[in-house]
Sequence to fold (127 residues):
Amino acid sequence: QVQLVESGGGMVQAGGSLRLSCAASGRTFNIYAMTWFRQAPGKEREFVAISWSGGSTSYADSVKGRFTISRDNAKDTGYLQMNSLKPDDTAVYYCAATFVSGYGSTWYREMSSYIYWGQGTQVTVSS
Fold:
């Protein structure tokens, strides 16, 4: 079992920055991937960024160049640094974790690939 707790959300003006944290506890050894999703009001939850245990990362096109995902394995914590925020980034941000790889080239973008989720943290970007 793994427990995930997000923090760092808040309200910021367009162009501002926020850093989200995802603290993992429990059986954290060998987490294969830590991923951020977000869900805006009235929309489906969507992939934002992933950090694999080997250090590789991948981003949704909508955040590429503005967001940076990272992990501090010593602290069992993942981070999402969000810069140049836009009103369209307003959403509840969730972190998720998995110990295994999925199938296909885009498995990591699917919610069904993860069984461990945090409770979410609200990010609101005003114009």
